[in-house]
Sequence to fold (284 residues):
Amino acid sequence: MDSPRGSPQPPRVPILPAYVHGYSAREAERLADQANTLAELLHSDTGFPSGARVLEVGCGVGAQTVIIAPANPGAHFTGIDLSEASLAEARRRAADAGLRNVEFRQADLLDLPFSDGSFDHVLVCFVLEHLPEPARALESLRRVLVPGGRVTVIEGDHGSALFHPDSLAARANIDGLVRAQGVHGGDANIGRRLQPLLAGAGYDDVRVSPRFVYADETRPSWVQGFTRLTFNAMVAGVREQVLTSDWMLPEAWDLGMADLERTAGPGGVFCYTFFKATATRPSL
Fold:
């Protein structure tokens, strides 16, 4: 029944999109492992001048925030996410880190509660891959940038995974993750699309830089931090979704995971490519 004309409307409650990795404590831990392992690779050149207003979109549990904000103490960060539970964890992490240049708000990036030109920079890290309309999201974000403001987008591309020993069973598990993300409207191979997405969304000066991960037994921190705790843990996390969808038999899945784990063992090698793009909102 419609509300009477002139009566107060109830606040709109954001509907969380289906996040293929879930919102468990283990997933929060995996995100922190991922952020810490990739900090230098992805953010060594992520810098903002003093006084810059930065919007971090889809900040989640603050895994990226607690790395970037301390490195840019003169900038002010606003982190947004749809999940209030994730934001509570982000606030806790920021408080534990003693951050004073960060605030968090619940908000939908397709319906941003900010006026035009509210931010000097927008940071989007591992968000577009989960959205059914990434181009629309980029257009929405362009509005809240000042003319000449910059956007930074970082995404992975599961199709770039190369490993030794190679294994069709392991590749089937990765394909299961890609398929599960696609069912939820996402694109786990979106990294390769960043240039055309940003250009099509009306940005200028689009530049994309591939960031290559290489892990073998001579780089044990990368084997542990990326191969085991980031990538393999991410694949393992969709086991139930894949099996309940009847895409694979349990024994086939377990074989694939065992083969993925071998890439982190003696003689194993794992390679992966992230893509970092920057672009500018056209000046008036």
Summary: The chain has a mean pLDDT of 90.
